């Protein structure tokens, strides 16, 4: 399905933030790795978190869910694949990488390639190299899906992993290492992208009773072996990455928009969207887990280190399209290794819509157009949920309607995105692909 976005003069209303996708996937995995029954309140529902649910069931966890919570009886250190040796993570890169570590506890698992034009193009070499150091044999196609893991008894010890492309490789090892017989030392080499997200992993592991010694810079870890995940009760907080697009939408038009459930002390790096919009001089209040934006269509340019808030950068860029002056988002090279190349692909579509943007290898530069953009085009979101959401923000200030191809892929993280925008007054409508 495509979506048509028309110029919208005002957004107004009150919505509840979605539950965090990142925390949901981590709590699900921690609960599955425990022996006993855990409860997760307010879990996210999206293609990513649903992929984690499906794969954990396939690995032997029991999941029972109602509108408020999910109850999980875990498989502990002993996942099983009874019906086949295959796992299908869909288009969920984080789920694939987290479960590559867990799957090494099995003798054989094949991760199939069902999205060759998206996840199928993404590299996983650095995690493969790290798992091979642990005695795991892996068959792959130049680091990409399909990937077959032959494990059974991975070893601890001294492990090196590159964090230059993604922090998800490190998170995968942090979930696995406590279950091994040997103690482990994990050294991160090259660089570590999205350190804030590693902090979320460590937070969840600590809640699950896992002890990890982490150096302050998160480049070295000591992990005792023979640990056990504890069955616990978890509560998922509101999702900043998805809310970032709604906040950006409210910032670029006249608005009075309230989003509830966004805690001020969240460890989600994308919480920075609130500070960035303040820097852009958007009228905004944030207290008691409620963000209120009273947009007046006036924004100022900013310079931001995007690595602290990776999944909010595209929304920030969309807001900067209408800011006065030139904005710069630097240290964002890891955006190139997501569902699509979120620098080249995204900026190509922004230019079609009339934005004035430039790219460097690790930077996005936006020359703001406070008068708005021309629109009147059909654009390709490259099957990427974050690109879809950000392009929609730009469409709200386009002179002519923008048609976004395959916009239904927003369901990967935020299935209700267009419902929420419509509830606030946005002029968006679904259309059939060939209509």
What does this structure look like?
This protein has 435 residues and is an alpha/beta fold. 28% of the residues lie in helices and 28% in strands. The strands form seven sheets. Strands 23-25-1-26 form a four-stranded mixed sheet, with helices on one face. It has a four-stranded mixed sheet with strand order 2-15-17-16. A hairpin with a 3-residue loop joins strand 4 and strand 5 (69-73). The mean pLDDT is 96.
Sum up the structure in keywords.
4-stranded mixed sheet, alpha/beta, 435 residues, 12 helices
- Largest sheet strand order: 23-25-1-26
Portion in strands: 25-35%
Largest sheet: 4 strands, mixed
Mean pLDDT over all positions: 96
Indicate the overall shape: globular
Structural category: alpha/beta
Helix content: 25-40%
What is the end-to-end distance? 10 Å
Unreliable stretches: none
Count up the helices. Answer: 12
Q: What is the radius of gyration computed over CA atoms, rounded to a whole number of angstroms?
A: 21 Å
Number of strands: 26
Q: What is the topology?
A:
Layout: E1 2-6, E2 10-16, H1 21-32, E3 37-41, H2 47-58, E4 62-65, E5 69-73, E6 86-87, H3 93-103, E7 109-111, H4 125-133, E8 137-141, E9 144-150, E10 157-163, H5 168-176, E11 184-192, H6 195-207, E12 212-214, E13 220-223, E14 233-235, H7 240-252, E15 254-260, H8 272-279, E16 284-287, E17 290-293, E18 303-305, H9 313-320, E19 326-330, H10 344-353, E20 356-360, E21 363-367, E22 373-375, E23 378-380, H11 385-395, E24 398-400, E25 402-405, H12 417-423, E26 427-431
Helix pairs in contact: 1-2, 1-6, 3-5, 4-5, 5-6, 7-9, 7-11, 9-11, 10-11
